[in-house]
Specification:
Length: about 130
């Protein structure tokens, strides 16, 4: 026996606490189930929303549709033949820079030929100590 009471009372008190906790858990689950819609109701709501166009596409499809919409909004008004003709005209007019490494090579060649022309015309000063001697 315990000093403050009977051993039998402690067992009854422990059972009462456990019973109360179990009952509270059980009733909470029952109330939660009673307040939420059934699976069939959820499916019906989803079908109705899908038919009315309120649902967006699932997963990565949303990104694809948005990209397609942006692409359609920025679509060219020129035909392919028109674009080709415009490009040819721009190329003849010198409005198009050469692509790739050719642009760098063309620029270097132009700079070298200008330097040679300046040297022949006497417009260039010698580099280094020779410039100071004159």
């Amino acid at each position: 026996m315990l000093a403050g009471g009977d051993a039998h009372e402690d067992d009854e008190e422990g059972l009462t606490v456990a019973t109360t906790a179990a009952l509270a858990t059980f009733t909470q689950g029952v109330w939660a189930q009673a307040s939420s819609p059934s699976r069939a109701e959820v499916k019906a709501e989803t079908r109705a929303a899908e038919k009315s166009g309120q649902l967006g596409p699932a997963g990565e499809a949303a990104d694809v549709k948005q990209e397609q919409a942006e692409r359609a909004a920025t679509k060219s008004t020129m035909t392919r033949a028109d674009r080709k003709a415009q490009t040819r005209a721009d190329e003849k007019a010198g409005k198009i820079a050469p692509a790739g490494e050719a642009a760098d090579l063309k620029q270097e060649k132009a700079e070298k030929s200008q330097a040679r022309a300046d040297e022949k015309a006497g417009k260039m000063r010698p580099a280094g100590d020779a410039a100071d001697m004159k």
